[in-house]
Design brief:
seven-stranded parallel sheet, about 325 residues
């Protein structure tokens, strides 16, 4: 690695402080990862390269569910439980982006007041930006940074259930789907693909008058899961009813997470899964870089307006227009 780049990185990020779980240093590191400035990108890449040997020692959990299902409240309750068991938890909460500022809209720290002030927890709301799949573009790198800082439980909370909310499963070990009780058709609003990826289903807000509805919903969902081929033949996807407000079945959720990790760690499936995820990450980043280079290419820019107009007017199909753009880009290179 370039010596001058190392010197610049050390002035920006104190690696020793980061390794000691200094939350301010970790926050600065993730900010550096998210920056689009070219000099910052080089420093960010040097940072990730330098901390990779200290990463990988956590359970990575993806959590998704429709807005209002109580993801943040559950994470706070579960996070406090996990900390009481001697762990350190990092939450990467991917929020919808403001169309005006590009910043995070929901700001999940406000929904996790006790966890946000705990020294053994780190919460980072991140705007999703233009990235689909319910995660931010630098979420993968942020996971590595949190692990290097000593956080051994990582939760990636996605924007919410939708057509492309499955990308989080490609960067975590366990995928958890949260649902609401009493929503009529219990499978409404969730796609078969997401259900097939779920390693655990939680019916939240199972308290007071919703208790009976939650029980019925859990039974319906468990039956539906029986009709879907499981991802792992030796892992039975369970449905747990919970109440984050009443601390109901939180311990059971944590037990299920630990059982899943123990099962997949025993024969190396988590290691194999992460290797495949790294390959997927390579191609995703390659696509992003190529698309960015194409959009910034001068010859492509000069042709784009004309081709867009031709496509909009039905004079040329999008497939041919796209091929022309790519050809101009490659010819220019």
């Amino acid at each position: 690695m370039n010596g001058n780049l190392n010197d610049k990185l050390r002035r920006v990020i104190n690696i020793d402080k980061l390794r000691c779980a200094d939350r301010r240093t970790l926050a600065r590191g993730i900010t550096l990862l998210e920056s689009t400035r070219e000099d910052h990108r080089q420093q960010a890449e040097a940072l990730i390269q330098s901390v990779m040997p200290y990463s990988g020692n956590s359970i990575r959990i993806g959590l998704t569910g429709v807005p209002g299902v109580g993801k943040s409240t559950l994470i706070e309750t579960l996070g406090n439980h996990v900390i009481s068991r001697g762990h350190k938890i990092a939450v990467l909460a991917v929020d919808p982006s403001s169309t005006l500022s590009g910043g995070s809209i929901l700001g999940d720290k406000t929904h996790m007041p006790t966890l946000a002030t705990n020294e053994k927890a780190f919460i980072r709301p991140t705007p999703a930006g233009e990235t689909s799949g319910g995660v931010a573009r630098r979420t993968r790198d942020a996971i590595v940074l949190c692990e290097a800082a000593g956080f051994d439980v990582i939760i990636v909370e996605t924007v919410g259930v939708g057509q492309s909310e499955t990308l989080v499963s490609e960067m975590t070990d366990m995928f958890i789907l949260m649902l609401l009780p009493g929503g009529g058709d219990q499978l409404q609003g969730i796609k078969r693909g997401i259900v097939e990826l779920a390693d655990l289903v939680i019916v939240n807000k199972a308290d007071s008058e919703l208790q009976s509805k939650a029980t019925l919903a859990a039974a319906d969902i468990q039956h539906a899961l029986g009709l879907i081929k499981p991802r792992y033949p030796d892992w039975q996807v369970s449905v747990i009813t919970s109440s984050a407000l009443e601390n109901k079945n939180i311990a059971e959720i944590w037990t299920s997470i630990n059982d899943f990790r123990t099962l997949l760690s025993g024969d190396g499936r988590i290691v194999s899964r992460r290797r495949q995820q790294a390959k997927t990450g390579l191609w995703m980043e390659t696509q992003n870089l190529l698309l960015s280079a194409l959009k910034n290419n001068q010859e492509v820019r000069e042709s784009l307006s004309r081709l867009q107009e031709s496509v909009a007017n039905g004079k040329i199909p999008p497939t041919i227009a796209a091929r022309q753009l790519v050809s101009k880009f490659l010819d220019g290179k």
